[in-house]
Amino acid sequence: MKLTDKIEITNEDNMLLMARYPDNYFDLAIVDPEYGINIENSGTMFKKFGKTKGWDIKPPEKEYFIELKRVSKNQIVWGGNYFFDLLGATKCVVWWDKMNGDNMMADGELAWTSFDKHSKRFEMHHFSNGYDKKIHPTQKPTKLYKWTISKFAENGFKILDTHLGSGSIAIAVEEMNRFEKMNLTLTACELDTEYYNKAIERINNHVAQQSLF
Asked: Which of 10, 24, 131, 142 is the most exposed place for a label (fewest CB within 10 A)?
């Protein structure tokens, strides 16, 4: 589905999507794959997001990362600490500091990157008002994606997301194009039809609201 002239999102397997593109077609892949930690059953807060879906039982296969590196010039992979054996060593990691303080929750999340840069840190409280209403158990804030794009993307970049989830990256791209004039394109997919439909609705609502202004 083409949501705008710059954003196209499909409801399909990511391997099928990537197979349609030549080597190095995308300038940057920003992905948030399943970590394989069965997060849906890690606490009561995740039950409302479809506890029995079973999408986080195992991590992606090695072939997924091979294909991801084939179609994109650079990659940012959230949950990269779970995939070092498949992705290899890196100079540059991204650290989302959730500013949780002294409690039982994780202090943050890590992303592996293919960049030869210094590591970067983004600060945003996990329960701050920077979130929209959550529609996915591992939904990341739009502000995180906008910050990531500002640090790692350039004007006119073609961006790939193989695990759309809640659609936060699409909203970030739309806002960066609208307000920062970055002329980015986004190609993304989501395998789960329920999450896909919710994400499309969320993105369309956002675009419609922005168009009013």
From this structure: 24
88: left (phi over 0), alpha (psi -120 to 50) or beta: left
In 3D, which of 66, 80, 67 has the Cα closest to residue 110?
80
CATH architecture entry for 7-211? 3-Layer(aba) Sandwich (3.40)
Domain segments of the chain as ranges: 7-211
Residue 162 neighbours by CB under 8 Å, 6+ apart: 14, 17, 18, 29, 31, 33, 64, 68, 188, 189
What pLDDT, in 10s, does the model give residues 10-30?
A: 999 999 999 999 999 999 999
For residues 146 and 169, what is the distance between their CA atoms, to the nearest angstrom?
Answer: 8
